[in-house]
Amino acid sequence: MKVNVQAVNFNVDRKLVDFLNIRLEKLQQFYDKIVGIDVSLRTENTSDKENKSVDIIVRIPGDDLVVKKTAKTFEEAADLGADALERLLVKRKEKIKAH
């Protein structure tokens, strides 16, 4: 499984890329047919403190799961997104087992 990280209008720190890779690799244990993951990082142009936005697209056969989260830091937003994806992947796996 490959994790592609793309930062919009800024250079991403190596520590952040490593954090994203480690956190998103854990999704493999919830659903083993993940083809790849695309992550897009962007800073929203607002005066709000929660302006770090993370879009995560998980590519699985037959469908793509998309999660968008905004928080104070990219790490927090990625963590929230990964938690949501864990729930979605578990639901998907249970749905497939039911058929």
Automatic annotation (TrEMBL):
Source organism: Paenimyroides viscosum
SUPFAM superfamilies (UniProt xref): Ribosome binding protein Y (YfiA homologue) (SSF69754)
Task: Write the protein's name.
Answer: Ribosome-associated translation inhibitor RaiA
* Pfam families per the UniProt record, alphabetical: Ribosomal_S30AE
CDD domains in UniProt: RaiA
- Entries under InterPro entries matching the protein: RHF-like, RHF/RaiA
Annotated transmembrane regions: none
